[in-house]
Amino acid sequence: MKKLGLVAALMLGGLLAGSNIATAQDTNQPPAPKKKGPTIERMLDRMTEELKLTDDQKTKVKAVLESSAEQMRGVPADQRREKRQEVRAEESKKFKEILTPEQFEKWQGMSQKRGKQAPPGDQKQSGTSSQ
Question: Is residue 26 domain-resident?
Answer without folding.
Answer: no
